[in-house]
Each structure stands twice: as structure tokens, then as C-alpha cells.
Design brief:
This protein has about 550 residues and is mainly β. Strands 7, 8, 9, 10, 11 and 12 form a six-stranded antiparallel beta sheet that branches. A five-stranded mixed beta sheet has the order 1-36-37-38-39, with no helix packed on it. Strands 31, 32, 33, 34 and 35 form a five-stranded antiparallel beta sheet that branches. Helix 1 (about 10-20) runs antiparallel to helix 3.
Length: about 550
């Protein structure tokens, strides 16, 4: 009895575990009940093993953890048994994190585990995740258009197409939908669009794409598509795709926009500007997606105008939130600032470009404090070397004299600041600061350790590194990260319980076996189903167990 339901998705191990032998096949009448039950057992195993990665850093909390990784362990991730398996080439730089879906039925090509990736050449790709076979490719530039130039800014260069990590909803449309924001230009204009593409074919859905246009303050503030780039990973909350925008370097007059679109119609649902009476305050986050608890949105705002004059509720009187840890309400799909935290010296930090906006916000799981009270916390860090832990129910707002209202602040522990996103796993938070060692901080009774409990032996060049974590439940935790600026860059794997224990790096093997070139500037490893996927300047590099 063949395992037809799962097609290519059910692994060899699953089929062997089902106990389907030639003898069983030859004695169907005698073993039909056993075979049927075995089929169900195999199906259950394969379903349990099916893990999708549909958004930046694995989930909307942006933890970066996959705790259902049953193949890679702290024992087999080593140079003798683990390394680069293959690459699949693309037509431009990949700045986004690759995404993954299990068991996708591709018309005329069967069922595949699929990797989705996007490029700055405005292309979207689907590849077989297990062997690199191309499944489909589409261009998202309009007729007579090209990807945008880099506006003289080296942050996204030499062209700007699709920069941000897309988001996927398997329940959207006929087969599932991947949402992508793309920038392009024609002879006279720059254009930003949001696309909804069928995951099986890449075809446009819902009458899309939709051109991104917006105004705020009754039309007094206008979104200029040439002025902005969508760098942060797209966020899907309650059937709305949220985009957020940053500038090209610090050129021109720009502000901080968050704009929502219906996932089923691509119509605009809400617009918010977080510096509407000021300037700057963009949402950059080194590519990290805004976080969400299912109803609210959390992000770190870049340097910009902050109104130190507060209203009676403690909010900036003119609604300017530059350099803030921001919480947005999405009630009735309408965006509004629900709470925030700004450090006491926020204006000085913004003036010195020492803002929070270079890092991303991470939501911690609920945990009990020393008094048994359940705490709902978020954590973030930027350029000022401090770690900020906020209570999501009372973030602390602004006091010009001190930061005493914040839940916890640990000063000066992230040497040279953060241009990356932390990760969470099993009570620990992992930071990769600029020009410093990877660091593990431990949570005990809802308080973060004041110093790192372990560190990597080597430091990481600019911009530091964004770690991701694979584990099987609470065991076999591995912290994966990319060491940049080495040409070639290096993939490194560490024991999550002690970062001083390095398990593997891609320079260990002889004859440059595992070298992969240059990863994207804020590249983030994605780990699933026994493989590690990295976006680079020319391809997606795939690592896994050798000989499997």
C-alpha cells in the first residue's frame, strides 16, 4: 500500500517506520488491517514532522527558533558529517530570509518541499528544497520598468527590487499565497507595489498587484515611493499584511510609515505615520520583521523627532515617536499607538545616531516572576549598547530624568551596539553585537541576567550577526549564525547551552568544500527539515548531513 497522500513529502525514514515490506505487499489479505494502521501511523509521523517557515525568524514573536528539528543534533553537526550540499542560483542579491513550505503540489511537477526566495532584481523563485530543482520563477516589475537604482546609498545596492522577507499564508487563495513588496522604476517614476502570488505557480492573485500610496494628517504628509524602501520583514496579523518603511541612507525628508493591506483584496486597511509633525523615525530594524502578539504590533523606531511635551496620558503631544520602542493597536484593522518606551536621553541619542532602530523587537513567552505574577515581556537593543526589556502591558513611556519605569534595562553589555536581531530558545536570549562575540543571556523568574552566561570564542565583524536556533523540543539546541565581511563569509553553529562550544564552521573542511561566498548584509540562517538555508549575493546555499 503506497504512501500516496504525502507524495515526496514523506521521508524515507517515515516509509521505513511504517513497516511496508515486500512480504506485506504480497499478503494483502492477511495483513490488510496491519497495513492500514501502519499507513495511519506513518501519516501521523510525517504530519508531525512537517514544519513550515512562513515568516521572518520563524514566527510573529520573531524568536528565530525551530523546536521541531529532529534531524540535526549537537552530535552530527560537525565537519565530518555536515556541510554544504548544493546551491541554487538566482538573478540578483538576496537580502531576505528564505521561506519554506512542506508538501506543496506544483502543477505538472508533483509534490515538493519548497524554498521561496526573492531578489533585488525583482524576481521571486520557488525551488525544490531537497535537491534545488527550479519549480517556478516570476518577475514582479511592470512593463517598461526595471528594478530601482540604489539612490546613491550603499545600504541596498546596486539595485533595489524585493528587499524584505515575504510572508506566506497557506490558507489564502486557492492554493496558498506568498505576499511580496517590490520596488521598481520607469523612465519618470519610482513605484512600490504589494503582490499576492499563488504559491504553486507564482501567478498574481486578488486582482493584484496594488500600488502603494498613502497620506496622513488629512493629506499634509504624503508617502513618496522614491524616498522609501521596505526592508523589515512583512507581518501578517488577522488577515492584514503590514508593511513598514525606511529611507535610503539618511537622504531627503522622510518620516516613519506603517501601512496595512487586506490579504484577500490587497486594499489598504490603515495608515499610520509615527513622526507626522517631525522628521526621520523610519522603521529599518536591519531587516527584522515587526513582531506581534496576535493583536498588537511591536517594533523599534529609528532616530527622529520625539515630542518631549506629553499629554495627560503620557503620550507625545504631537504624535512623534522617534527612537521609541513602540506598541501599535490593530483593533478593527486600524493602526494606533497603544503604548511606548523612550529612554530619558532619547533626543541626545537621536542627535548622535545612537538609536534603537538598528535592532528588532522580540516577544518573550509568558513567564512568572519572583512573586508568581505572569509577565508578558518584549526585548530589544540598538546602537547604544543597552538591552531594554519592556512589560508589554505597561512599557514605561518617557521620563526626562531617568528610565525607572521600564521593566528592566541592562546598560553597556552589547559592545559597539546592535545592527541585528536577537533569538530566543529555552529561557535564553542570544545577541550578536557589532564587532563583538555572540552572547547568551539567561532568563530567571522573568529577569534577564545582567551579564552574558556564555560567549563565542570569536568576535563578529560589522554588522554583527542575527542568530537562529534549531532544536528538538528543549534538546539538541543549536545556535546558527553568519560571520560577515570575510569574503567568504562563514556559517557557524554553536551549542545553545554554551556558546563557547562551537560545533561547526564552513571554513573547517578541506578544499573549500563548504564555502558559499558572501551572504546578504543582514542575512539570517533558516533551519528546517535537517537543512540550513542561506541567502547570498548569487544563490541560496543549502547545508545538511552529508550523504543523506
Amino acid at each position: 500500500m503506497p504512501v500516496l497522500f504525502f507524495g515526496e513529502h514523506c521521508s524515507t525514514d517515515c516509509r521505513q517506520g511504517a513497516g511496508f515490506s515486500n512480504a506485506a505487499a504480497g499478503a494483502v489479505a492477511r495483513k490488510i488491517v496491519f497495513t492500514f494502521l501502519s499507513f495511519l501511523a506513518a501519516s501521523a509521523v510525517c504530519l508531525a514532522a512537517a514544519v513550515d517557515v512562513v515568516t521572518y525568524h520563524n514566527d510573529n514573536a520573531r524568536t528565530g527558533q525551530n523546536t521541531k528539528e529532529t534531524v540535526l543534533t549537537t552530535s552530527n553537526v560537525k565537519s565530518s558529517t555536515f556541510g554544504k550540499l548544493f546551491t541554487f542560483s538566482v538573478d540578483g542579491k538576496i537580502d531576505a530570509e528564505p521561506l519554506y513550505l512542506s508538501a506543496v503540489s506544483i502543477p505538472g511537477k508533483g509534490t515538493h518541499n519548497v524554498i521561496y526566495t526573492v531578489t533585488e532584481n525583482d524576481s521571486v523563485y520557488a525551488f525544490d528544497a531537497d535537491d534545488g530543482t527550479p519549480l517556478w520563477q516570476v518577475s514582479v516589475v511592470g512593463q517598461g520598468e526595471t528594478p530601482s537604482d540604489d539612490h546613491g546609498c550603499g545600504q541596498i545596492s546596486p539595485q533595489i527590487g524585493v528587499t524584505s522577507t515575504p510572508v506566506i499564508d497557506r490558507g489564502s487563495g486557492a492554493h496558498g499565497t506568498i505576499y511580496v513588496v517590490a520596488m521598481s522604476k520607469n523612465s519618470s517614476n519610482y513605484i512600490q507595489r504589494i503582490h499576492a502570488l499563488d504559491i504553486t505557480t507564482g501567478q498574481e492573485e486578488f486582482g493584484g498587484p496594488t500600488e502603494i500610496k498613502a497620506t496622513f494628517r488629512n493629506g499634509h504628509v504624503v508617502f513618496d515611493p522614491s524616498q522609501y524602501a521596505e526592508r523589515q520583514g512583512l507581518l501578517l496579523v488577522n488577515h492584514v499584511i503590514y508593511t513598514a518603511w525606511t529611507s535610503h541612507c539618511d537622504t531627503g525628508a522622510y518620516t516613519g510609515w506603517v501601512i496595512g493591506y487586506s490579504e484577500s483584496t490587497l486594499k489598504q486597511t490603515s495608515v499610520l505615520n509615527v513622526t507626522p509633525h517631525g522628521s526621520e523615525g523610519s522603521i529599518w530594524q536591519s531587516g527584522a520583521g515587526m513582531a506581534s502578539d496576535g493583536s498588537n504590533i511591536y517594533f523599534l523606531d529609528a532616530n527622529g523627532t520625539f515630542d518631549t511635551t506629553l499629554n495627560k496620558k503620557g503620550f507625545p503631544s504631537l504624535g512623534d515617536y522617534g527612537n521609541a520602542f513602540v506598541k501599535l493597536s490593530t483593533t478593527n484593522n486600524k493602526l494606533a499607538v497603544a503604548d511606548y518606551f523612550n529612554m530619558f536621553n532619547t533626543v541626545d541619542e537621536s542627535n548622535k545616531d545612537l538609536d534603537l532602530g538598528s535592532g528588532g523587537a522580540l516577544l518573550l513567552p509568558p513567564m512568572k516572576d519572583v512573586h508568581g505574577k505572569t509577565r508578558y515581556l518584549a526585548i530589544g537593543a540598538g546602537k547604544d549598547t543597552n538591552i531594554y526589556v519592556v512589560d508589554r502591558l505597561n512599557m514605561g513611556k518617557f521620563n526626562p530624568n531617568n528610565d525607572n519605569a521600564i521593566y528592566q534595562e541592562i546598560d553597556g553589555v552589547l559592545k559597539n551596539g546592535m545592527w541585528a536581531m536577537p533569538a530566543y530558545f529555552h529561557g535564553s536570549v542570544y545577541f550578536g553585537p557589532n564587532g563583538a562575540r555572540l552572547q547568551q543571556f539567561r532568563l530567571t523568574k522573568a529577569r534577564l541576567s545582567k551579564t552574558a552566561v556564555s560567549k563565542s570564542k570569536i568576535g563578529f565583524h560589522y554588522p554583527g550577526s542575527t542568530p537562529s536556533v534549531s532544536a528538538n523540543g528543549a534538546s539538541n539546541g543549536i545556535v546558527w549564525t553568519i560571520e560577515h565581511s570575510l569574503n567568504p563569509d562563514v556559517l557557524r553553529a554553536y551549542d545553545a547551552t554554551n556558546l563557547a562550544t562551537e560545533l561547526y564552521d564552513s571554513n573547517q573542511a578541506a578544499n573549500q568544500r563548504d564555502q558559499f561566498g558572501i551572504a546578504s548584509h543582514f542575512g539570517t540562517p533558516m533551519i528546517v527539515n535537517g537543512k540550513v538555508y542561506l541567502g547570498t549575493e548569487t544563490n541560496v546555499a543549502v547545508f545538511g548531513l552529508l550523504g543523506h
